[in-house]
Design a protein that fits this description.
- The chain contains four helices and eight strands, in the order E-H-E-H-E-E-E-H-H-E-E-E.
- The mean pLDDT is about 85.
Length: about 170
């Protein structure tokens, strides 16, 4: 994925037919398209893979982001951030490209662990973002509110480095 698909903003996913086919044929995708394509390819090869999405919040940047996880019997669940890996390839940083296959930087907040995850409580009407729902949604009178009816912003108010004690045994 990171060697053959480059990052490019995408239209709403509802407008894309067969997302993995689209990414492979065009050579382009955003973080979600790349994650979904990676998951599909893993599953075709019998490798368990799953979705994660949320916020990337680093000292210099904050925004919605998607990535994947894959499973091997020897290592358990590992991460794959294909869009960050693709960006590292474009920058000529092979070490960083390889890092994003199996690792993740510490700037992630997981908001959603499933593509097309249901709302709880459920939304009775059409959802604005039924796919990854990184930024939240609202409903009024049984209908999801369209993007233009909601004022949203994401702001990094404070970032604090916490001491790391390593993974529990």
């Amino acid at each position: 994925m990171t060697e053959h698909v480059s990052y490019r903003y995408q239209p709403p996913y509802i407008q894309l037919d067969a997302i993995p086919d689209y990414a492979i044929a065009s050579g382009y995708g955003d973080c979600g398209v790349m994650a979904l394509t990676f998951i599909a390819l893993c599953r075709c090869l019998g490798v368990p893979a799953r979705w994660q999405s949320g916020l990337y919040a680093a000292p210099s940047d904050i925004g919605a982001h998607d990535w994947a996880m894959f499973y091997t019997p020897d290592t358990g669940w590992l991460w794959a951030d294909c869009s960050f890996g693709s960006g590292a390839r474009r920058a000529g940083d092979e070490e960083l490209r390889r890092f994003y296959f199996g690792n993740l930087d510490p700037w992630r907040t997981v908001c959603n662990r499933a593509f097309f995850a249901p709302f709880n409580p459920s939304c009775p009407g059409m959802r604005r973002d039924p796919f990854d729902n990184q930024m939240g949604e609202a409903a009024c009178n049984g209908c999801g509110l369209p993007a233009g009816a909601i004022d949203q912003s994401v702001e990094l108010v404070e970032l604090e480095e916490l001491p790391w004690k390593g993974r529990p045994a």
